[in-house]
Protein backbone atom coordinates (compact mmCIF):
# COMPACT_ATOMS: atom_id res chain seq x y z
CA UNK A 1 0.00 0.00 0.00
CA UNK A 2 1.44 3.36 -0.98
CA UNK A 3 1.95 6.31 1.35
CA UNK A 4 -0.90 8.26 -0.32
CA UNK A 5 -3.31 5.36 0.17
CA UNK A 6 -2.38 5.13 3.87
CA UNK A 7 -2.96 8.87 4.32
CA UNK A 8 -6.28 8.64 2.47
CA UNK A 9 -7.43 5.74 4.69
CA UNK A 10 -6.30 7.60 7.83
CA UNK A 11 -8.23 10.74 6.83
CA UNK A 12 -11.29 8.64 5.93
CA UNK A 13 -11.10 6.88 9.31
CA UNK A 14 -10.91 10.20 11.20
CA UNK A 15 -13.93 11.52 9.29
CA UNK A 16 -15.91 8.35 10.05
CA UNK A 17 -15.05 8.51 13.76
CA UNK A 18 -15.98 12.21 13.92
CA UNK A 19 -19.27 11.47 12.14
CA UNK A 20 -20.06 8.58 14.53
CA UNK A 21 -19.21 10.63 17.62
CA UNK A 22 -21.27 13.63 16.46
CA UNK A 23 -24.37 11.63 15.59
CA UNK A 24 -23.89 9.19 18.46
CA UNK A 25 -23.91 12.05 20.96
CA UNK A 26 -27.00 13.50 19.33
CA UNK A 27 -28.78 10.19 19.91
CA UNK A 28 -27.75 10.16 23.59
CA UNK A 29 -29.04 13.67 24.23
CA UNK A 30 -31.15 13.77 27.44
CA UNK A 31 -33.86 15.86 25.79
CA UNK A 32 -37.17 14.08 26.00
CA UNK A 33 -40.03 14.91 23.69
CA UNK A 34 -43.25 13.53 25.02
CA UNK A 35 -46.21 13.11 22.64
CA UNK A 36 -48.07 15.90 24.43
CA UNK A 37 -45.13 18.27 23.81
CA UNK A 38 -45.41 17.85 20.05
CA UNK A 39 -47.97 20.12 18.33
CA UNK A 40 -51.07 18.22 17.21
CA UNK A 41 -50.28 19.03 13.58
CA UNK A 42 -46.98 17.10 13.92
CA UNK A 43 -48.41 14.03 15.67
CA UNK A 44 -49.02 10.84 13.82
CA UNK A 45 -52.62 9.79 13.18
CA UNK A 46 -52.17 7.00 15.73
CA UNK A 47 -51.15 9.46 18.48
CA UNK A 48 -54.12 11.71 17.76
CA UNK A 49 -56.51 8.76 17.88
CA UNK A 50 -55.00 7.35 21.09
CA UNK A 51 -54.79 10.64 23.01
CA UNK A 52 -57.24 13.24 21.82
CA UNK A 53 -56.81 16.62 23.45
CA UNK A 54 -60.29 16.63 24.96
CA UNK A 55 -59.70 13.54 27.16
CA UNK A 56 -58.43 14.30 30.65
CA UNK A 57 -55.03 12.79 31.35
CA UNK A 58 -54.46 10.46 34.30
CA UNK A 59 -51.29 10.32 36.36
CA UNK A 60 -49.62 8.11 38.94
CA UNK A 61 -47.20 9.29 41.60
CA UNK A 62 -43.81 7.60 41.79
CA UNK A 63 -41.56 8.41 44.75
CA UNK A 64 -37.89 9.19 44.28
CA UNK A 65 -35.44 11.10 46.49
CA UNK A 66 -34.48 14.74 46.13
CA UNK A 67 -33.87 17.84 48.21
CA UNK A 68 -36.20 20.48 49.56
CA UNK A 69 -35.44 24.22 49.67
CA UNK A 70 -33.33 23.66 52.84
CA UNK A 71 -31.20 21.07 51.00
CA UNK A 72 -32.60 18.26 53.15
CA UNK A 73 -33.30 14.88 51.57
CA UNK A 74 -37.00 14.26 51.02
CA UNK A 75 -39.15 11.77 49.14
CA UNK A 76 -40.44 13.48 46.02
CA UNK A 77 -43.57 12.40 44.17
CA UNK A 78 -42.96 12.52 40.43
CA UNK A 79 -46.06 12.47 38.23
CA UNK A 80 -46.07 10.03 35.35
CA UNK A 81 -48.78 10.06 32.70
CA UNK A 82 -50.78 6.85 32.81
CA UNK A 83 -52.98 5.26 30.16
CA UNK A 84 -55.04 2.29 31.38
CA UNK A 85 -55.49 0.91 27.87
CA UNK A 86 -51.71 0.68 27.42
CA UNK A 87 -50.24 0.35 30.90
CA UNK A 88 -52.67 -1.88 32.79
CA UNK A 89 -53.36 -1.00 36.43
CA UNK A 90 -52.08 2.15 38.11
CA UNK A 91 -50.19 0.11 40.71
CA UNK A 92 -48.44 -2.02 38.10
CA UNK A 93 -47.48 1.04 36.04
CA UNK A 94 -46.26 2.93 39.12
CA UNK A 95 -44.13 0.02 40.39
CA UNK A 96 -42.59 -0.52 36.95
CA UNK A 97 -41.85 3.22 36.73
CA UNK A 98 -40.27 3.17 40.20
CA UNK A 99 -38.01 0.24 39.38
CA UNK A 100 -37.03 1.80 36.03
CA UNK A 101 -35.81 4.87 37.94
CA UNK A 102 -35.98 8.59 37.30
CA UNK A 103 -35.87 9.97 33.77
CA UNK A 104 -32.92 12.06 32.59
CA UNK A 105 -34.95 15.27 32.94
CA UNK A 106 -35.74 14.34 36.56
CA UNK A 107 -32.11 13.44 37.31
CA UNK A 108 -31.05 16.84 35.96
CA UNK A 109 -33.34 18.38 38.62
CA UNK A 110 -31.58 16.46 41.40
CA UNK A 111 -33.91 13.46 41.72
CA UNK A 112 -32.38 10.02 42.31
CA UNK A 113 -33.29 6.53 43.49
CA UNK A 114 -31.80 4.07 45.95
CA UNK A 115 -33.25 1.05 44.12
CA UNK A 116 -30.32 -0.94 42.74
CA UNK A 117 -29.82 -1.27 39.00
CA UNK A 118 -30.73 -4.78 37.94
CA UNK A 119 -33.82 -4.96 40.14
CA UNK A 120 -36.69 -6.46 38.18
CA UNK A 121 -40.43 -6.59 38.67
CA UNK A 122 -41.25 -10.29 38.56
CA UNK A 123 -44.99 -9.65 38.91
CA UNK A 124 -47.64 -7.36 40.32
CA UNK A 125 -50.65 -9.46 41.24
CA UNK A 126 -53.85 -7.62 42.16
CA UNK A 127 -56.70 -9.40 43.90
CA UNK A 128 -59.95 -7.93 45.25
CA UNK A 129 -58.59 -7.78 48.83
CA UNK A 130 -54.81 -7.32 48.34
CA UNK A 131 -51.96 -6.77 45.92
CA UNK A 132 -48.61 -8.56 45.81
CA UNK A 133 -45.50 -6.89 44.41
CA UNK A 134 -42.90 -9.56 43.64
CA UNK A 135 -39.40 -8.18 43.00
CA UNK A 136 -36.08 -9.82 42.15
CA UNK A 137 -33.45 -10.48 44.79
CA UNK A 138 -31.45 -7.48 43.54
CA UNK A 139 -33.88 -5.16 45.37
CA UNK A 140 -32.42 -6.05 48.76
CA UNK A 141 -28.73 -6.18 47.82
CA UNK A 142 -26.00 -3.56 48.17
CA UNK A 143 -25.89 -0.02 49.48
CA UNK A 144 -26.00 -0.61 53.23
CA UNK A 145 -28.76 -0.10 55.80
CA UNK A 146 -29.50 3.57 55.01
CA UNK A 147 -29.93 2.80 51.31
CA UNK A 148 -32.16 -0.17 52.10
CA UNK A 149 -34.45 1.94 54.30
CA UNK A 150 -34.70 4.61 51.60
CA UNK A 151 -35.59 2.16 48.83
CA UNK A 152 -38.19 0.51 51.06
CA UNK A 153 -39.79 3.90 51.79
CA UNK A 154 -39.78 4.68 48.05
CA UNK A 155 -41.63 1.42 47.43
CA UNK A 156 -44.04 1.87 50.36
CA UNK A 157 -44.98 5.42 49.38
CA UNK A 158 -45.42 4.52 45.70
CA UNK A 159 -47.52 1.44 46.50
CA UNK A 160 -49.76 3.25 49.00
CA UNK A 161 -50.38 6.20 46.69
CA UNK A 162 -51.44 3.99 43.78
CA UNK A 163 -53.51 1.22 45.36
CA UNK A 164 -56.78 1.04 47.25
CA UNK A 165 -56.04 -2.40 48.72
CA UNK A 166 -53.28 -3.56 51.10
CA UNK A 167 -49.98 -4.19 49.28
CA UNK A 168 -47.50 -6.91 50.21
CA UNK A 169 -43.84 -7.17 49.17
CA UNK A 170 -42.41 -10.49 48.03
CA UNK A 171 -38.82 -11.16 46.99
CA UNK A 172 -38.40 -13.95 44.43
CA UNK A 173 -41.83 -15.37 45.34
CA UNK A 174 -41.32 -15.34 49.13
CA UNK A 175 -43.02 -12.88 51.47
CA UNK A 176 -40.40 -10.37 52.62
CA UNK A 177 -40.79 -10.05 56.38
CA UNK A 178 -37.02 -9.61 56.81
CA UNK A 179 -35.03 -7.62 54.23
CA UNK A 180 -31.34 -7.58 53.40
CA UNK A 181 -28.24 -8.93 55.09
CA UNK A 182 -28.82 -6.54 58.00
CA UNK A 183 -32.12 -8.28 58.75
CA UNK A 184 -34.44 -5.26 58.64
CA UNK A 185 -37.87 -6.28 59.93
CA UNK A 186 -40.73 -5.33 57.62
CA UNK A 187 -44.31 -5.50 58.87
CA UNK A 188 -46.88 -6.13 56.16
CA UNK A 189 -49.06 -4.99 54.47
CA UNK A 190 -46.86 -2.06 53.49
CA UNK A 191 -47.67 1.17 55.32
CA UNK A 192 -45.95 4.18 56.90
CA UNK A 193 -45.15 2.14 60.02
CA UNK A 194 -43.85 -0.98 58.27
CA UNK A 195 -40.25 -0.18 59.25
CA UNK A 196 -40.90 0.93 62.83
CA UNK A 197 -39.59 -2.38 64.01
Short summary of the structure?
The protein is built from six helices and eight strands. It is of the alpha+beta class and 197 residues long.
What does the model show?
With about 200 residues, the chain is an alpha+beta fold. It has one domain (about 30-50, about 55-185). It is built from 6 helices and 8 strands, in the order ααββαααββαββββ. It has helices at about 5-25, 45-50, 85, 90-100, 105, 145-160, and strands spanning about 60-65, 75-80, 120-125, 130-135, 165-170, 175, 180, 185. A 4-stranded mixed beta sheet has the order 3-4-5-6, covered by helices on one side. It has a two-stranded antiparallel sheet with strand order 1-2. Strands 7-8 form a two-stranded antiparallel ribbon. Helix 4 packs antiparallel against helix 6. The longest helix has 25 residues, at about 5-25.
Descriptive key words:
35% helix, alpha+beta, 6 helices, two-stranded antiparallel sheet, 197 residues, 21% strand, 8 strands, 4-stranded mixed β-sheet
Helices and strands, with pairings:
Blueprint: H1 3-27, H2 45-50, E1 58-67, E2 73-82, H3 84-87, H4 90-100, H5 104-107, E3 121-126, E4 131-135, H6 144-161, E5 167-171, E6 174-175, E7 178-179, E8 184-185
Parallel strand pairs: 4-5
Antiparallel strand pairs: 1-2, 3-4, 5-6, 7-8
Helix pairs in contact: 4-6
Helix content: 25-40%
General shape = elongated
Rg over alpha carbons: 23 Å
Total strand count, please? Answer: 8
Amino acid sequence: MSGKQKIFLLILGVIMVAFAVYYGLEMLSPTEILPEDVPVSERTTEEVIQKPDNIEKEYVNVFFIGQNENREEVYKAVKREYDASVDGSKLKFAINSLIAGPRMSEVSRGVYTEIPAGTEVISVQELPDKAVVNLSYDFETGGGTDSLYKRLYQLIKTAKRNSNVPVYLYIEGKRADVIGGEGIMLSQPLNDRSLDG
